[in-house]
């Protein structure tokens, strides 16, 4: 990995703020990003499954461009 001097200074400061070594901080950062991506994928899947039920319960909340496949006015 390569960082500019300014970037490396920021990463070192962030690692120090968490009380971690630079190596541990960068490892944890990668793991957190993988977990974030899994969460976003799961949340999107969950929202997509419920979208129809929500649209039926709150028809006025459906964006006009998505109502009955009609084009936006």
Automatic annotation (TrEMBL):
It comes from the Bacteria. This is Antitoxin. It comes from Streptomyces montanus. The lineage of its organism: Bacteria, Bacillati, Actinomycetota, Actinomycetes, Kitasatosporales.
């Amino acid at each position: 990995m390569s960082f500019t001097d300014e970037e490396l200074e920021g990463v070192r400061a962030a690692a120090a703020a968490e009380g971690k070594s630079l190596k541990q901080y960068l490892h944890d950062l990668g793991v957190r990003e993988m977990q974030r991506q899994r969460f976003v994928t799961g949340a999107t899947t969950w929202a997509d499954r419920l979208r129809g039920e929500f649209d039926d319960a709150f028809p006025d909340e459906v964006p006009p461009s998505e109502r009955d496949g009609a084009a936006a006015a």
